[in-house]
Amino acid sequence: MDKKEIQEQRMRGYFIEAAKEIIRGEGFKAISVRNIAERAGYSYTTLYNYFKDIKDLIFVCVKDFQDECAQFIADQVKKDLTGMAAIKSKTIAFSNYFIQYPGIFELFYVEKISDLNSQQSTTKLIYSFLDRICEEDWNDCIEKKLVTKEEAEDYGAQLQFFITGLLLFYLNRRQPSDYKEFTTLRDKQIGNILKLRS
Predict the structure, then answer these.
(1) Is residue 198 domain-resident?
(2) Cα 53 to chain center, whole Å?
(3) Does 112 have pLDDT greater than 90?
């Protein structure tokens, strides 16, 4: 990598980190080209030297947040867990990440996708995220004949819709009203979806 490429990568990194800090701390509604540039310490016109537009930058942030969330989950889940137990544990860790970072949840699951990217790539990236996190474990369950491929897809969809719906109510409406009630409901329903007994 030559000096110019290193400089370009560094500059892109400043804008990406600035956007991610704003989303984490203030939420997606606080995002603007001027806010990002100010936080990065550069003119807002400089941002356009490194990104086609703000949607291009947000797409990069989504991918970075997914990598960060995947690492968070890997750190939270015991390495020896497999199958349904691993899926349950990963789904719990997935929800814990978004409780910790409600601004990222808002970016992923509340904002209109047209505000994020004109292409379907952002939608697909977000929609398939939990499935990708649990893919290896679902395949393990299928190989062990615990579920069929169709059942795995059905349970995966139920998990995704349940956990994002529960997070939506908890983070925005405070229903359930406290964290203990939230975790009790979450853990019980994940177990029910996966036909587990805790």
Answers:
(1) no
(2) 22
(3) no
